[in-house]
Amino acid sequence: MGSLRVTIWNEFLHERNNEVVQKIYPDGMHAVIADGLREQLGDEVVVRTATLNEPEHGLTEEVLAETDVLIWWGHVGHDQVEDAIVERVQKRVLSGMGLIALHSAHASKIFRKLMGTECMLRWREAGERERLWIVRPGHEIVSGLVGEYFELAHTEMYGEFFDIPQPDELIFISWFEGGEVFRSGCTFHRGRGRIFYFRPGHETYPIYYDSNVRRVIGNAVRWAATTGATYYGPARNIAEPLHPIANPKATDEHFQRPQ
Ligand code: ZN
After folding, report:
1. Tell me: the pLDDT tens digits for 92-110?
2. Cα 247 to ligand 1 centroid, rounded to whole Å
3. Which of 33, 119, 208, 235 has a 20 to 30 Å separation from 258 between CA atoms?
């Protein structure tokens, strides 16, 4: 079976409270995102889902320990996510779990904690066209996309200024019919973890059925999965030098020179 273990977290509120959303995503957005991942990655991936109302929001220590990449969709329920769980997810990202923040997850507690800024933006709900321009054509996340851009016929607009730190890599820039532009695909590294913010996904449009969106999320899962060296995040006082130190006067309060 698969080597990539993905957990898709969805607050799962709109799908139960809004008829329009219910029709598009009867089993929840997480179910459709999961289908898309299986379609893109096949046997390479093992997918599980977690939602807000489960105990510990479905994100227990055990679940996170068995997760290589966490996908996050949240909107009206951001404040209902417990801080202790947010902290747990942050620690797991720092130690190497990938995180893909979708659409309104820009305002989630976990994304804002990892970014350190407000992460706010301008927006408008007018069902307008979005054109996502590929601005990093050599990147794994855009692998297999055809053309210089792809389009979504009806979307909610997100516009600049988007208050995020400078991304490590900018993958997509969106243009909107109404005139705004937006950094709609951004990568970040925090500790050992890789983070991808991907904008598409407003709940009243069938965005997670779109083949290009599915391809990008599948590619992003591969990209964000743990890699690199061992993580040495916590503080480490090294009393024994690696090599003899000539200075006879030690001034560091923690330094004990052997007699
Ligand atoms: Zn939205």
Report:
1. 999 999 999 999 999 999 9
2. 60
3. 235
